[in-house]
Amino acid sequence: MGIHLFLWLLSVTTSCLGSTNVFNDKRELQSKFFNEDWMMSIPDTTPLSAITIPGTHESLSLYGGPLVCQVWTLENQLSVGLRFFDIHAGIWIWTQKYLYIRDRYWMFSQGKKVDEVLECIAKFLEVHKSETVLMMVTLHGLYKDTAKELWATLVDTYKNIMLTSNSVPNMEQARGKIVLLQSHNGPSGGAQVQSSPFFKNNELISHKVDTMELRLDVCKSHFVLTDMETKRFRIKSQKNLARRVNQQIYNVVLQSKKSSASQGCLGVFGMIFPGAELIKAMTLLRPCDCGGAGTPEATPEPTPEPAPTNTRTSTWTNTRTNTRTSTWTNTWTNTWTNTRTNTWTNTWTNT
Question: End-to-end distance of the chain based on CA atoms, in angstroms?
């Protein structure tokens, strides 16, 4: 591939790849598509931002006619391998004691509390300890200060499994944890996020992207997010949008897989109506090579200091009389050198 990853606006249709499942609008998820522990093989030292992570845009907008963005429940999204979730929540009236999930336009309730979302994710991570979940929370409504207070209470409740630092953790630090990402209208805290270099206005950018630039983007101290943009009251158009953009994302994944220099340097994706095979293809990419950050390095053995050399010469004469046999004089010289391996030489003469 040289030093560039080539990205096209390809004029291919879904039929070009046969039955590739890049789009899904069916609520049922067959168990053959479960992909619950795909992060297990990722080295502990890998920065989380250097992993291609599939996720969903408006992850829990399951109801609302033209504003529907997903069909799988949160449980099914976790089971199929999705690990990034875009959550929109708030309170409708000031007397509410819980944050409720709604669509991004704040029109349709999804009948679920944020408490329930966090509990569901926590239960999943308790069983699948090798995994991590990225979460971006956007707060809506007229009472955002109250919403922020309610969110702060939830963070404190789940503080043992929630990372809110603005830095990117590595895989070891993130396993079994929820990693909060910063949102423009979200609560404080969370890792920094940069917009994707791949798409603009839901179109694949038709130019070369330097592989070094890609690697620098995802290996820095922030996440790179490709997030789809949906249109209000255009459900048919949204599904057509998902078919087209998901196909383009799949093409990018295939191109990345062929590149030895930039495989896996794609970042995080927030998709609508993603298909199981598209998700699987993303999880099979190896992490981006951040100059060895994703591969444990052998710790070099320290170079031992040279052992002191001791040279000593001793000369003495022993005279002893043995009345049973004879009288003899035993004279010898003992000279040795003491090094790390303790070798020495002895010379002597007997008379």
Answer: 83
The 10s digit of each residue's pLDDT in 52-109 is 999 999 999 999 877 899 999 999 999 999 999 999 999 988 888 999 998 887 767 8
Q: Does the residue 128 lie in any domain?
A: yes
Describe the crossing of helices 114-127 and 144-157 by its angle, rounded to 10 degrees. Answer: 20
Residue 19 · residue 227 · CB < 8 Å: no
Q: Are the beta carbons of 105 and 67 closer than 8 angstroms?
A: yes
* 234 alpha carbon, distance to own chain's centre: 33
Confidence (pLDDT) at 109: 80
Place of tokens 């004469």: 317
Residue 140 lies in a domain: yes
Q: Model-level pTM?
A: 0.78
Q: Which residues 6+ apart lie within 8 Å of 202 measured at CB?
A: 228, 229, 241, 245
Residue 328's domain comprises 310-348
Cβ atoms of 281 and 81 within 8 Å: the answer is no
Share of the chain above pLDDT 70, in %: 73
Q: What tokens does 7 get?
A: 């990205």
Q: How many domains does the chain fold into?
A: 2
Closest CA to 288 of 222, 219, 220: 219
Quote the CA–CA distance of 56 and 184 in Å, as a whole number: 17
**CATH number for the domain that contains residue 279:** 3.20.20.190
DSSP-derived secondary structure for 248-307: HHHHHHHHHHH-TTTTTTT-EEEESSB-HHHHHHHHTSPPP-SSSTTSPPPPPPPPPPPP
Rg, Å, the chain Cα set: 32
Beta bridge partner(s), residue 227: 270
Looking only at the bridges linking them, the beta strands covering 223-227 and 208-210 are unpaired
